[in-house]
Write a structure and sequence with these properties.
Blueprint (H helix, E strand, L loop, with lengths): L13 E5 L5 E12 L4 E8 L11 E5 L12 E2 L4 H24 L1
Antiparallel strand pairs: 1-2, 2-3, 3-4, 4-5
Length: about 110
């Protein structure tokens, strides 16, 4: 289901999000993936200012990739479907479990 995973530090991408009040915050791309079921690309982001041991809220959006397949340019779209959210959470949980197992191997 997940076609592409960006590992932190490996082609680091940053995206600026602007909230309803016009405040800008810089986010780092955790990873991107494509869903054949929904025919969309997704990006998961976390605040760049987050500390390594800090629990962070991860933002998820669908996006239209640029010519390089990146999410750093172009439009992000909110996830409004509960089934899509469930699929994204499943992919995120798998990513986090894989990331934890890589850390334990070192």
């Amino acid at each position: 289901m997940a076609d592409e995973h960006l590992q932190p530090g490996e082609d680091e991408q940053l995206i600026t999000l602007i909230d309803d009040k016009g405040n800008e915050e810089l986010y780092q791309v955790l990873f991107t993936f494509d869903s054949e079921d929904y025919g969309k690309s997704y990006v998961l982001l976390y605040p760049q200012s987050a500390e390594d041991d800090e629990e962070v809220e991860i933002q998820a959006f669908s996006f239209t990739p640029d010519e390089n397949g990146d999410a750093s340019q172009g439009d992000l779209y909110p996830i409004e479907n509960d089934d899509e959210w469930a699929m994204i959470e499943e992919v995120l949980n798998t990513f986090l479990a894989d990331d934890d197992s890589h850390l334990e191997d070192k």
